[in-house]
Amino acid sequence: MIHADADSIEYDKVLADYERDGFARLGRVADDATLIALRERADALMLGTITHEGLFFQRDTTTGNYDELTYGKGWEGPSLNYRKLEKLERDPLYRAWLENAVFERVARARIDGPIALYRAVLMTKAESGGTHLPWHQDAGKFWGLSRDPDLQIWTALDDAPVEAGCVEALPGSHKQGLVTPLGGVVPAHARASREADARAVPLPAKAGEVILLHNMLWHRSGVNVSGRTRRAFSVCYMSAATRCLRTKRAPRAFTQVFA
Q1: Which terminal CB of the chain, N or C, has fewer other CB atoms within 10 Å?
Q2: What is the C-alpha separation between 51 and 181, in angstroms, rounded?
Q3: pLDDT number for residue 51
């Protein structure tokens, strides 16, 4: 599954960049056969030709307006316009990829002891569309955890140039922690005070490239006007000692991946 370029990864430099900026590039990690298999599986899951019990689906908007996203509907029939698929650790192909040796080495450098998943999620932007994802942080009370994770590993399954709505980041923003206790979308006053729009750094990627993203990092993405599908697979790793704090439903049990 691992591309030959991964042999040249300078892990110490990558992790130093990560500490400084809140993001870092691992370079090309996925080989061509893996990319083809993961793209084909993504389409099969969205079209319903392959199914797994318990997957989470969210359809994309038709307008690009984040406020028009709907929640709780699950799979709504065959479509390549799903924005998000979660719980992909239940799919054997995606499970094999998220357990690869490169990711394990990075996770063990950041996390002590046994390691579990918070989520394994496919983020997609159809050939022409997708939704503006505003500045946000992937942590806080909204996530309902006993401790905030701080490692997400993002794999480009397709080329993700600027015009395809690549990830954009605000370097160093992870160092100030959560903007609000709830987490999630960064309020307008905070965006303005940090001049986030003017300081945004685009992170375009080629298919197979991998980027590390800190959960506290401010990041966003735009719509896809490239005419080509843009899919990416993001995995959040955390200590297996992390507990789910939700009370309205039974607490979640998290999948352990590295003992």
Answers
A1: C
A2: 36
A3: 96
